[in-house]
UniProtKB/TrEMBL annotation:
Source organism: Coemansia spiralis
Catalytic activity: tRNA(Arg) + L-arginine + ATP = L-arginyl-tRNA(Arg) + AMP + diphosphate
PANTHER family for the chain: ARGININE--TRNA LIGASE, MITOCHONDRIAL-RELATED (PTHR11956:SF11), ARGINYL-TRNA SYNTHETASE (PTHR11956)
Annotated protein name in UniProt: arginine--tRNA ligase
Gene Ontology cellular-component annotations: mitochondrion
GO MF, one example: ATP binding
GO biological process: arginyl-tRNA aminoacylation; mitochondrial translation
């Protein structure tokens, strides 16, 4: 959005300094505070011999201002420029009006395919905070790719295979209850799993039975597979409901169980590369040379392991989807596993090995609900909704006006969880804190939603008196608050691009918070109703644009934008 201004500055400076236009454009920044200028060049970044302070002074004095760049002054090694704010404002607001919900989106990914693998919980085990992080970070990444024109595929790689599913089957005979299974498969399978694991500690023969059962699953025994498939299908059906609450839909439910024949090919390739050693009938992948240890890839009974399955799945995914890129959103606790996996596919010479990317994230400490520290996603969402609902009820008058309080509370609770999760760099661990995240003030999800609803209410109240007019006279937006909003709106396309580049959710979250703060201060000072008609129209166009961008951003991070609360 600032391109026109940057080029204008750079073209003149190139003549004065001898530096290439492109280098100068790259050295132009939007200062954090615009007290000294709207755009600034840091002279040392141009790498020109001489005293930067003196050079800045000389070039600022020589710079000829015009209609677009209206002022140039130096401060220390910087040159600060004033731009024609009206030109920027007109351009930004009309752009947003034209593109609306797609403002900032690009077609950069056209013709390219990306798979984003995320969430990937384990059947019969708790959906813990780590899975929640993968789920919401992964969904953001998926949405971002789509917004940039990629053919994006969301994939859930379930933990649905291994000896523990043999144990689960054995456990179901003893502890299973058909009604409970149908009512809440995720919870019931977990209960069965906990009970049978405890029993197996006392009675080791149960472990032998579990191993035998799993072996029959691997050998394709139909009866064994039928029961397992039922557990899987019921769990997926239940997960789908919960994901829907988070506005998430998986294009593919894959899973460890789905990996097939490619594992045999992978094993042969690993052996041919001399990476396999044998020990007591088991096969080990030796990556010691790369400081990645020695890991089993085949047990002595011939069954496969987590790592084997990931390598096999990589090959099958490529053969099936022919992707240009694949992203694995997996906890940093599995960094070692992911490194071994990526090394292995590289060493066996898969020509597409460089299309794989691991996106990791840190731990969440202290996430618990009243039911205890074993947390299911459902519990989490229910609890945040309840707490939110209580907060809403405290303001009786407002509460009466909310059309669907249940749903609003649900969305607010989810907003709180998601925004807190995305507030810091992915890799950082954080402490879960209900109190902090549910506040309507500060850096929270409810605060952003609240700002969105305020913008919606400005539009609602203007209806009938003022219209959203793309040709409104924006020269009437003279307040500094207006310029703050406009600069932020102008930066949104860059924010999306930067978030996609770094895959750091905090980039877009900090932007949303900053925009929300700018909107909050403008609302106090710049009223629509009661202002002269032409001023009201210009202001409404500005608020309408801010609302469109906030809605756009909320949707990308996976939240339903609330229109009232
Ligand atoms: N199911 C695994 C877990 O819960 C996560 C799977 C991650 N994805 C992968 N391709 N390994 O730990």
């Amino acid at each position: 959005m600032f391109d026109e201004f940057k080029t204008s500055i750079a073209t003149q400076l190139a003549v004065l300094t001898g530096a290439p236009v492109k280098d100068i454009v790259d050295a132009i920044e939007i200062p954090r505070s615009n007290a000294h200028g709207d755009l600034a060049v840091t002279i040392p970044r141009l790498r020109i011999k001489g005293n930067p302070v003196q050079m800045a002074k000389d070039w600022a004095e020589a710079f000829k201002v015009d209609e677009v760049i209206t002022n140039a002054v130096s401060t220390g090694p910087y040159i600060n420029f004033r731009i024609n704010r009206q030109v920027l404002t007109r351009k930004v607001l009309s752009d947003i009006h034209k593109t609306q919900d797609k403002y900032g989106w690009t077609n950069e990914g056209a013709g390219k395919r990306v798979i984003v693998e995320f969430s990937s919980p384990n059947i019969a085990k708790p959906f813990h905070a780590g899975h929640l992080r993968s789920t919401i970070i992964g969904n953001l990444i998926y949405n971002l790719y789509k917004a940039n024109g990629w053919d994006a595929i969301s994939m859930n790689y379930l933990g649905d295979w291994g000896k523990q599913y043999g144990l689960l089957a054995v456990g179901f005979e003893r502890f299973g209850n058909e009604e409970k299974l149908v009512a809440d498969p995720i919870l019931h399978l977990f209960e069965v799993y906990v009970a049978i694991s405890a029993a197996a500690k006392e009675d080791d023969s149960l472990n032998d039975r579990a191993r035998a059962y799993f072996k029959s699953m691997e050998d394709g025994d139909e009866a064994a597979l039928a029961l397992w498939k039922r557990f899987r299908d019921l769990s997926i059906a239940k997960y789908k409901d919960t994901y829907a609450r988070l506005n998430i839909k998986f294009d593919v439910y894959s899973g460890e169980s789905q990996v097939g024949e490619a594992m045999t090919r992978a094993m042969t390739m690993l052996e041919e590369c001399g990476l396999i050693t044998e020990s007591e009938g088991a096969k080990l992948l030796n990556l010691e040379k790369y400081k990645l240890g020695v890991t089993p890839v085949k047990k002595s009974d011939g069954t496969t392991l987590y790592l084997t399955r990931d390598i096999g799945a990589a090959i099958e995914r490529f053969e099936k989807y022919d992707f240009d890129k694949i992203i694995y959103v997996v906890s940093s606790q599995q960094d070692m596993h992911m490194k071994q996996f990526l090394k292995a596919i590289d060493l066996i010479g898969l020509p597409y090995a460089n299309r794989f990317q691991h996106v990791n994230y840190g731990l969440v400490r202290g996430m618990s609900t009243r039911r205890g520290t074993v947390v299911f996603l459902d519990d989490m969402l229910r609890e945040s909704k309840e707490i939110m609902h209580n907060v809403m009820r405290e303001n009786e008058k407002k509460y009466e006006q909310v059309t669907d309080p249940e749903h609003t509370a649900d969305v607010l609770g989810i907003s709180a969880i998601i925004v807190q999760d995305m507030l810091a760099k992915r890799i950082k661990d954080y402490d879960f804190d209900w109190k902090r995240i549910l506040s309507f003030e500060g850096d929270t999800g409810p605060y952003i939603q609240y700002t969105h609803t305020r913008l919606c209410s400005i539009e609602r109240r203007a209806q009938g008196t003022v219209k959203v007019n793309p040709d409104a006279d924006v020269s009437l937006l003279t307040e500094k608050h207006a310029y703050e909003i406009v600069t932020l709106l102008a930066q949104y396309p860059d924010v999306l691009a930067n978030t996609l580049r770094s895959l750091e959710p905090c980039t877009i979250i900090h932007y949303m918070l900053e925009l929300s703060r700018a909107v909050s201060s403008a609302i106090e000072q710049m009223r629509v109703l009661g202002a002269p008609e032409d001023v009201a129209e210009a202001r409404l166009l500005m608020y309408w644009s801010a609302r469109a961008v906030l809605k756009n951003a909320l949707t990308i991070i996976g939240l339903e934008p609330l229109t009232c609360m």
